[in-house]
Amino acid sequence: MKMLDGNNKDLAARISDEYDQLVDYGAHPNVDGLALSSDVKQLDHDKYEIITVFAHGREAVLLGVLDLLRCMHYVCQLLFMVIKERLQILGLDAEFLKTSELIHELICKLEVEQNVSET
Asked: Which of 11, 63, 76, 104 could serve as a FRET partner for 51 with CA atoms 20 to 30 Å apart?
């Protein structure tokens, strides 16, 4: 994160925020997150059924898709920072940037949809 912060403070801040949110929602073994979204039932003396709730309705699915798209966009930005010269040599830089921009446009569209559904 320090190296990224030295190269692109805005991207570093966004990735840090996304990382914290992913941890809060269970990306790491998070006991509290697991307890909130799991139901354990003993079926027999040595058998258990564990039910995990992944998403709670359309809004939660939309938020999950948005998080995934944001991560994809961050990866595109990081890759471009790291392999920009290689992409230019191969003549792929314009296509790479176009794809990254399409992902960003989709994120913006879904954020508008999310804001509309919240009101």
From this structure: 63
Cα–Cα separations (whole angstroms), residue 102 to 7, 41, 69: 23, 45, 11
Six-digit token string for 63: 């938020």
pLDDT in tens, 75-106: 999 999 999 999 999 999 999 999 999 999 99
**Which residues lie closer than 8 Å to 39 by C-beta, 6 or more apart?**
50, 51, 52, 53
List the structure tokens of 34.
Answer: 């697991």
- Give me the pLDDT at residue 1, please: 81
Q: How far apart are CA 66 and CA 23, in angstroms?
A: 16
Dihedrals phi, psi of 30, to nearest 5 degrees: -115, 105
